[in-house]
Design brief:
The complex is a heterodimer of chains A (about 230) and B (about 350). Chain A is α/β, with parallel strands linked by helices and about 230 residues long. Chain A folds into 2 domains: about 130 residues, P-loop containing nucleotide triphosphate hydrolases (Rossmann fold); about 70 residues, no CATH class. Chain A is built from 10 helices and 10 strands. In chain A, the strands form 2 sheets. Chain A has a 6-stranded mixed beta sheet with strand order 6-7-8-3-9-10, with helices on both faces. In chain A, strands 2-1-4-5 form a 4-stranded antiparallel beta sheet, with helices on one face. In chain A, helix 3 packs parallel to helix 6. The relative contact order of chain A is 0.19. Chain B has a two-stranded antiparallel ribbon with strand order 1-2. The radius of gyration of chain B is 22 Å and the shape is globular. Chain B starts with 6 loop residues before the first helix and ends in a 14-residue tail after the last helix. Chain B is about 70% helix and about 0% strand. Chain B is built from 14 helices and 2 strands. Classes of the chains: A alpha/beta (about 230), B mainly alpha (about 350). At the A-B interface, helix 2 and helix 3 of A face helix 7 and helix 8 of B.
Chain lengths: ~230, ~350
């Protein structure tokens, strides 16, 4: 059994069904990527894994324990962390306050973790007294990432971390993600830039209309003719 | 009266009849407006029950201080009402938390479009609260301030300065301004420096991300109501000490309070305070009769014969209304760029 596993997830928004028996999983020290066309239910999988949306059936397990019934806060407490695609910072709070809020549930001293985030993203140290709303898109993404790191999570869920950033910043973000994975975290991300994401991924899930269409290692998927034709533009 | 220009007496006159009353009325509005701002920022609705909640808090203070006076537990010089506030706060907190549990929580759970639903629900709470107050204390006006009425009276001021025009500084004005400064300082310290206060700002800023950071929404809401209880009870008590207690008067306070919040920029605490003073000064400056003031300042030949009052005091609530309309038309985000009310 994988470290984080969503199995046969079925979910809907009201009466509109989104996921049909969809499964994803990720191990510690592994980067798994969910790709697929718009409306495939990629972000919905994330929401179900986090307990922000209840699945009608299927299960979510973390380290072998069933967490399907737990609230979002409890799952965060157990080591899940999430960086949403949009609205992923507290805009009218400073960079430092954003990080403090990220570590809200921790009872111990968080200043060391804040220092670690500053080491990972030196620009945030220079801007620590500025409001998040005043930062550029790439910097705000770093704040969002840093905020999620504050709980010292074992699993990091990322929803399109490179949406709307320049190619240079995209490379930077991917390299940050690989750092996190190499540090032993399980990373699961939804990505619009499928080609680049699969290139660095250990594992990939191709979702279409809420179903698993293809599953394999990043390399396998990139080399798969059907996947290339349908999702990677030839 | 002399026919020369007398700036000092004119200033004393303005201080006594405009500046001091407007400062204390503005402080009372500011405390009420901060309570509305807190509810709007955290619970995302405009709390129509604010005026009647202030009446409820004041009612508790009147009941408790009445008991204390009957037992002789008073302090010389100050109104017993001030001693009754801590106990009244407990009662007010219980009342607000109960209302939240019975009414508002339901709409949070079903994730209703909150401003319009919350407004409607709070109108219900407003009527219930107002009804309870009238049931217990009656609808008529009453005074409950005991102790010294003045820090210094007109006569003492005149004797001390030798001016023709006196200034009185009422105990209620002194208490209002002092307590308002203390409470505002406390609120800003709490929101800026404490972990709980920051969590409230985070929740107000981005609710979903606050949940993802493990901030407990129920706790944030409860602390909000406790702060609202604090501001509401003290605002109501101070207003009552200053102008007497009458349920209908408190009910109508909703208009200047909402005007303050919107003028300042809804959701912005600094805006609420600035808006409150703007509304208070507008109300008093526009309804003040300037005859005597002009007599001090103008040569005899130009002395006015009329009262020189721009608007009758019976229209003072219309002033809030006009301010409200002008702001919504010209700058809906308010002075300090708050949120625009969009029904979401």
């Amino acid at each position: 059994m994988a470290y984080l596993e969503g199995k046969n997830l079925v979910a809907s928004y009201g009466v509109v069904p989104i996921l049909h028996e969809c499964s994803v999983e990720v191990e510690k020290g592994e980067l798994a990527v969910i790709v697929g066309p718009n409306g495939a239910g990629k972000s919905t999988v994330m929401r179900v894994l986090l307990g922000m949306l209840d699945a009608t059936s299927g299960s979510v397990t973390l380290d072998g324990k069933d967490i399907s019934m737990l609230s979002t806060q409890d799952r965060i407490g157990m080591g899940l962390a999430f960086v949403p695609q949009t609205k992923n910072v507290f805009p009218s709070m400073t960079v430092e306050e954003n990080l403090e809020m990220g570590g809200f549930i921790r009872k111990d001293d968080i200043s060391k973790t804040i220092q670690e985030v500053y080491e990972l993203f030196p620009i945030l140290y220079d801007k620590r007294k500025q409001l998040a709303v005043q930062l550029s898109g790439g910097q705000r993404q770093q704040v969002a990432f840093g905020r999620a790191m504050m709980t010292k999570p074992s699993v990091m869920l990322l929803d399109e971390p490179t949406a709307g950033v320049s190619p240079i910043v995209m490379d930077e973000i991917f390299s940050n993600i690989l750092d996190v994975r190499n540090a032993g975290m399980a990373v699961l991300m939804v990505e619009q830039n499928a080609q680049q994401a699969l290139n660095i991924a250990d594992k990939g899930f191709v979702l279409v209309s809420g179903r698993n269409e293809h599953t394999g290692t990043g390399k396998e998927l990139i080399n798969d003719r059907e996947v290339r034709k349908k999702f990677l533009g030839g | 009266m002399s026919d020369s220009i007398d700036i000092i007496n004119a200033f004393a006159l303005m201080t006594n009849f405009v500046i001091l009353p407007a400062l204390s009325y503005g402080s009372q509005l500011a405390l009420g407006a901060l309570a509305v701002t807190l509810v709007y920022s955290i619970l995302r609705f405009s709390n129509f029950a604010q005026g009647d909640s202030m009446a409820f808090g004041t009612m508790l203070v009147i009941l408790i201080s009445g008991y204390m006076i009957s037992k002789g537990w008073t302090i010389t010089g100050f109104p017993t009402a001030i001693l009754a506030i801590p106990l009244a706060l407990i009662g007010m907190s219980i009342y607000l938390l109960t209302m939240d549990r019975l009414v508002y929580r339901h709409y949070r759970k079903i994730k209703a479009k909150q401003n319009i639903v919350g407004i409607t629900a709070s109108i219900g709470v407003m009527f219930v609260t107002g009804g309870i107050v009238r049931f217990i204390l009656g609808a008529s006006a009453q005074r409950f301030g005991d102790g010294e009425r003045f820090i210094f009276s007109v006569r003492e001021f005149k004797a001390f300065t030798g001016l023709e025009q006196g200034i009185a500084f009422k105990t209620s004005q002194f208490l209002t301004i002092t307590l308002a400064i203390l409470l505002v300082a406390f609120l800003f310290y709490f929101l800026q420096k404490t972990k709980t206060g920051k969590a409230m700002r985070a929740y107000s800023d981005n609710t979903e991300l606050a949940l993802l950071s493990g901030i407990d929404p129920d706790k944030v809401v409860q602390i909000t109501w406790l702060l609202v209880a604090l501001f509401t009870t003290i605002a109501g008590t101070l207003y009552g000490l200053d102008k007497g207690f009458a349920p209908q008067q408190y009910h109508l306070l909703l208009l200047p309070i909402f005007a303050s919040v919107i003028v300042g920029g809804i959701g912005s605490p600094i805006g609420a305070i600035a808006g409150a003073f703007l509304v208070a000064f507008s109300e008093i400056l526009l309804t003040y009769a300037y005859k005597k003031f002009l007599i001090y300042l103008l040569p005899l030949s130009m002395h006015p014969s009329s009262l020189v009052q721009l608007i009758g005091t019976e229209y003072k609530y219309a002033i809030s209304f006009v301010i409200l309309v002008i702001v919504l038309l010209i700058r809906p985000t308010g002075i300090f760029k708050g949120k625009v009310i969009d029904g979401e």
